[in-house]
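Q: What residues go here?
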């Protein structure tokens, strides 16, 4: 099987999986649930699923128009490191909150994938999680995991 066929199959599978998950979010079971905010419990997962679907379509288009050029090989080491980093970030949210764990996640994920422009990495690693935190906590009124540090902000 060629690399192009593998990429087409993978991106098609991810698109179908995302469509299935999105369809599932419209189950009547979720309409009865509430989380104490002005939005339902499926609000944020649907945002993530829209991003998932857009990325899947982009991957599918890229794989379809690619003319067999040799790309960079996939590093399983980086994939496993990212899985470990995601697990550590989720576990750290309980102790240091969303904001600090997300800042660390963004910075370390850049390092894992070899990005070394620190004058860009540091501000983006801080600004993006702070922006997300402000939108969810102060605009949408959806609480995110906090820690003792969050009271100082």
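A:
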């Amino acid at each position: 099987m060629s690399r192009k066929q593998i990429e087409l199959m993978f991106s098609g599978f991810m698109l179908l999986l995302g469509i299935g998950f999105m369809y599932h979010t419209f189950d009547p079971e979720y309409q009865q649930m509430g989380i104490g905010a002005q939005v339902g419990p499926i609000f944020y997962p649907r945002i993530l699923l829209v991003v998932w679907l857009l990325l899947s379509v982009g991957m599918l288009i890229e794989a379809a128009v690619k003319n067999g050029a040799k790309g960079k090989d996939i590093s399983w080491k980086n994939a496993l490191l990212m899985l470990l980093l995601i697990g550590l970030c989720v576990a750290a949210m309980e102790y240091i909150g969303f904001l600090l764990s997300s800042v660390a996640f963004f910075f370390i994920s850049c390092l894992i994938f070899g990005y070394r422009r620190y004058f860009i990495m540091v501000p983006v690693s801080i600004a993006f999680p702070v922006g997300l935190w402000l939108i969810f906590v102060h605009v949408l009124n959806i609480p995110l995991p906090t820690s003792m540090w969050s009271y100082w902000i």
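A: Context that may help when evaluating the design: The chain has a mean pLDDT of 79. Residues 76-112 form the longest helix (37 residues).
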